Amino acid sequence: MRRYPLLVLAPISLTLAACSGMPADPIAYADEIHERCLTLDTHKDISRQLAPEQLPSDPETAKKYRESYDPTVRGNQQVDFVKMREGQYDCAFFIVYTPQQKLTPAGYHGSYTEAKNKFKAIHRMCRLYPEHIGLATTAADVERLHAEGKLIACIGIENGYPMGLELKRIEEFHERGARYMGIAHNGHTQLGDSHTPKEPMHNGLSELGVKAVAEMNRVGIMVDVSHASKNTMMHAVKVSRAPVIASHSGARAMNDHSRNLDDEQLRAIAANNGVVQCVALASFLKSNPGHREAIGALRKELGIERGKTGDLTSEQLTERFNKLREMRKAVDAKFPPADVSTYVDHIDHIVKVAGIDHVGIGSDFDGGGGITGWQNAAESRNVTRELVKRGYSEADIQKIWSGNLLRVWRAVEEVAAATK
């Protein structure tokens, strides 16, 4: 659906309500704001089987494949074209994620191969369904595709591990469409320290990591500090000539989790003119020991304990996470997890500390993300409804959903252009 600015098509009733500050129907008012927003989510994990060109010959197997990997059907993924349209969820960074392996040539090679498979899957999706979705490689592309009424795919890399020791691969990743890249995931990498384990390897960025940040600045890839240790994150902000992003992180003051950012980190990203994309993963948002232990037991039963999935294929991970999603419903009922209100509590705190220009949305859908009220793309307007309930203006909500991230993206493009 084509979107139009408020000044062009604002209903008289909405204009009067906005002027009075007391909308007659707050939910309808919020939904109208959501309709006009360009909504952008910086973190949606995928399988390498996304958008298969051929389905298995067996009908039952083909049906399961479509439900898991065909984005044109309402399947069991949290994000597909149907849910995107239902929730007016316009744009997502589809993620090139590869499990952390040992810091060895063999480990790097296997990860690089898997990364190429995921790049191919995202490009295949856009090639097979151009009437539905387009690939954006610039901030201007995002806005153009949105004006055309299309869904939008962007590409991010979670963890720079697959580049191995070769800086030239950063430019290759950019040519493949990547527009942000992380330094680490759950484990220290050749580029820098992760938030876990606690014992550091580099005490920040490694020498190669410093060079990688410079190369990302040069080619126009946003530096992602989510999953990095505090020392690594602060080091990256110090050496980057362009603003950085945290693609999916929460506020540590709201929940003391190692994946979240403390106030010093939030202020550092604001000073860098970067943006924190607030994550919607329940355990990062809310301390819930009973829930965490029960989910941990399910993960162990399914063989997907955190940091221990390196031997599983992308297909196995997808299948087991789908099972986890079904099995956790009973756990959620017993130990109520984080909901949309909890989520916006984190946004509120980031705004309080860093400012309205430095917060955005990063769900981590199908990577563990999903909270009560926002379990998939179809429920995205619930986030806008809660923001309206808290008193955020339409201009602020536009910034949170996409404006801040697009500003950072443009700044990174400008630094790259000046370097070249």
Describe the structure.
- The protein is α/β, with parallel strands linked by helices and 420 residues long.
- It has three domains: 1-36, no CATH class; 38-283 and 338-419, TIM Barrel (Alpha-Beta Barrel), CATH 3.20.20.140; 289-336.
- Helices cover 49% and strands 11% of the residues.
- The protein has 17 helices and nine strands.
- Helix 11 links the parallel strand 7 and strand 8 (275-279).
- Mean pLDDT is 93; it is low at 1-20.
Identify the notable features of this structure and list them briefly.
420 residues; alpha/beta; TIM Barrel; 3 domains; 3-stranded parallel sheet; 17 helices; disordered N terminus
Condensed summary:
The protein is of the alpha/beta class.
Topology:
Blueprint: H1 6-9, H2 12-20, H3 26-36, E1 40-45, H4 59-69, H5 81-87, E2 91-97, H6 105-128, E3 133-135, H7 139-147, E4 151-158, H8 168-175, E5 178-182, H9 207-219, E6 222-224, H10 230-239, E7 245-249, H11 263-271, E8 275-279, H12 282-285, H13 289-302, H14 314-334, H15 340-354, E9 359-362, H16 381-389, H17 394-419
Parallel strand pairs: 1-2, 2-4, 3-4, 4-5, 5-6, 7-8, 8-9
Helix pairs in contact: 3-16, 9-17, 13-14, 15-16
Characterize the biggest β-sheet. Answer: 6 strands, parallel
Helix percentage range: 40-55%
Assign the structural class, choosing from mainly alpha, mainly beta, alpha/beta, alpha+beta, or little secondary structure: alpha/beta
CATH topology of the largest domain: TIM Barrel
Total helix count?
A: 17
The best one-word shape is: globular
Task: State Rg.
Answer: 20 Å
How many strands?
9
Mean pLDDT: 93
The overall number of domains is 3
Distance between the termini: 37 Å
Sequence of secondary-structure elements: HHHEHHEHEHEHEHEHEHEHHHHEHH
Q: In what range is the share of β-strand residues?
A: 5-15%
Low-confidence stretches: 1-20
Q: Could you name the CATH homologous superfamily of the largest domain?
A: Metal-dependent hydrolases
Q: CATH class of the largest domain, please? A: Alpha Beta
